[in-house]
Specification:
Number of helices of chain A: 7
Radius of gyration of chain A: 17 Å
CATH architecture of chain B: 3-Layer(aba) Sandwich
Number of domains of chain A: 1
Distance between the termini of chain B: 8 Å
Structural class of chain B: alpha/beta
CATH topology of chain A: Growth Hormone, Chain: A
Order of helices and strands of chain A: HHHHHHH
CATH class of chain A: Mainly Alpha
Radius of gyration of chain B: 19 Å
Structural class of chain A: mainly alpha
Strand order of the largest sheet of chain B: 7-6-5-8-9-11-10
Strand content of chain B: 15-25%
Largest interface: A-B, 20 and 24 residues
CATH architecture of chain A: Up-down Bundle
Strand content of chain A: under 5%
CATH topology of chain B: Rossmann fold
Oligomer: heterodimer
Distance between the termini of chain A: 17 Å
Largest sheet of chain B: 7 strands, mixed
CATH superfamily of chain A: MFS general substrate transporter like domains
Number of strands of chain A: 0
Shape of chain B: globular
CATH class of chain B: Alpha Beta
């Protein structure tokens, strides 16, 4: 059950990041346009944030790793996305007023709005590897499985958002839904992590 | 879609593929820009620009080689109908250059008008100059920028235009942020108190309904110009639409100028309609909800 939940969290985290990334292009377009460099800025910020997240997630897994802490990452990442809904327009307007060049404008706006939640989301994968791996012989197997779920989730988040969700919902409704699922999944994992009372499955 | 319709669609597609590839077009220039493939070809006495590998399917601009001043496309003729609403524009904004047909014609009619053109793709500007005789005078300014970004900045600087033409869409890809209520409000801000908006829009998909309600939500009633199943032009005016008599007076005054472009009021005036022929409950497009490309799948 725990292992299934860990894979589910990794998959959902991949879904979450890609859905947000696609929506971020939409969110920036009214102020900075839809030029290739706006997408360049968005992708740069997300990749950079994920790279930092991987680093931090791996570090954080060294001390007392637990399912509850993994769930906490999911919850914080979702919470860090709430300002996009509440303050998004104000942040975009402020950047638009101060920076004329839409390249650096979109880069800065994307950084302010999406860097923090994406760093936290990036921490999920290496942290999950730590929870799954029991010994070095199976480490590659579990890392592979985890990559599978995480990247499969990313693919699902990409296609569902761009093909269907934007056709039926407003951007803020989709964001709210994504945050809601993250919080629900985080809560579920916290409860299960608490009940099984197993902070470190490898011990 | 019922199976029989699917078959019909497939059949039509095959026919169009075969006829397109067999049509003898003389390709004179191809170019990959940051945004699209640009194809220039000559065929049947016309030189055309297309944003697709397949000629004809998405012709952006065509120019008659024997009579370069004449308008080839119905939609550009209908766009000029904007002049019936305001026959004396001093400052004009055009979003989307294409081959530069509209600004060239406007500059010929109004040599003193200041014309700003916003085009996102530098390659299109280059090609318009090289292959379509687009030769901007000192009164014409070409700005290579995203139309939305320009509109926002211009709005802050309190720019004012008597005439704005929106022509930034092709049939393959729509910049979705240029179709929303918020964008139209920014455009509206750029218009003078009796300024006129002319917009080239889609009419062969359910996007027609959504665009109609979106424009109406911002500009109120507008003239709806439609020929068969092709383009639809929206003509709106701040401060309300002029009466029929005013249109006719302006049309008479402009007749010789438009005849030089190959058309006149006998053809254009009857197209002016104020009758809504769209679903009034179609969802308005906003920055929050703008799946224009998904809504633009053809209705069969």
């Amino acid at each position: 059950m725990q292992r299934f939940l860990i894979f589910l969290i990794a998959g959902w985290s991949g879904f979450f990041v890609m859905a947000i990334e696609l929506l971020s292009g939409r969110i920036l377009a009214p102020d900075f346009g839809n030029s290739i460099y706006v997408w360049g800025g968005v992708i740069t910020v997300f990749m950079l944030a994920l790279s930092v997240g991987y680093l931090l997630g791996g570090r954080w897994s060294l001390r007392d790793p637990s399912l509850r802490r993994l769930a906490l990452l999911l919850v914080i990442s979702a919470a860090a996305t709430i300002p996009v809904i509440l303050l998004g327009d104000a942040v975009l307007a402020a950047v638009f007023d101060r920076i004329d060049d839409p390249r650096y404008g979109s880069l800065l706006a994307a950084t302010l709005l999406f860097f923090a939640p994406t760093v936290i989301a990036g921490m999920v994968s290496p942290y999950a590897v730590r929870l799954l791996v029991r010994d070095s012989r199976t480490s590659g197997h579990f890392a592979g499985l985890l990559y599978f779920f995480s990247t499969f989730g990313s693919a699902a988040g990409t296609i569902l958002t761009s093909f269907y969700l934007v056709l039926y919902f407003e951007i803020n409704q989709i964001l709210t839904g994504l945050i809601g699922v993250s919080l629900a999944l985080g809560l579920l994992a916290t409860v299960i992590g608490h009940r099984e009372n197993a902070p470190d499955p490898s011990s | 879609m019922r199976p029989i319709h699917r078959l019909k669609t497939l059949f039509a597609l095959v026919v169009s593929l075969v006829t397109t590839s067999s049509a003898a077009a003389n390709v004179i220039h191809t170019e990959k820009s940051l945004y699209r493939n640009i194809l220039i070809y000559e065929e049947g006495g016309q030189r055309c620009m297309s944003f697709s590998r397949r000629e004809q399917s998405t012709r952006q601009t065509c120019k008659s080689l024997s009579d370069p001043d004449e308008f080839v496309f119905t939609y550009t003729k209908m766009m000029m109908g904007a002049l019936y609403l305001n026959p004396d524009p001093h400052r004009v904004l055009i979003i989307g250059l294409g081959g530069g047909v509209l600004p060239t014609a406007l500059a010929a009619i109004y040599p003193d008008a200041a014309i700003d053109i916003v085009e996102i793709d530098p390659a299109v500007v280059r090609v318009a100059k090289q292959f379509f005789g687009f030769n901007p005078s000192a009164k014409i300014r070409v700005i290579e920028e995203d139309g939305r970004v320009f509109a926002k900045r211009a709005g802050q600087a309190d720019g004012r235009y008597d005439l704005i033409m929106l022509d930034a869409f092709d049939h393959q890809y729509i910049p979705e942020h240029l179709l929303t209520q918020e964008f139209l409000l920014e455009i509206k801000k750029l218009l003078t108190t009796d300024g006129v908006l002319a917009a080239n829009t889609f009419s062969t998909s359910q996007l027609y309904d959504h665009e109609s309600t979106t424009y109406q939500s911002v500009f109120g009633d507008f003239y709806n110009l439609r020929v068969q199943w092709k383009n639809r032009i929206i003509l709106a005016k701040l401060g309300g639409l002029p009466a029929r008599e005013a249109l006719e007076t302006h049309a008479a005054a402009l007749e010789s100028k438009l005849q030089a472009l190959g058309f006149g009021r006998d053809w254009l005036l009857p197209l002016f309609s104020t009758k809504p022929d769209w679903k009034a409950d179609a969802r308005v497009l906003t920055d929050q909800y703008s799946p224009s490309n998904l809504l633009n799948t053809p209705v069969f």
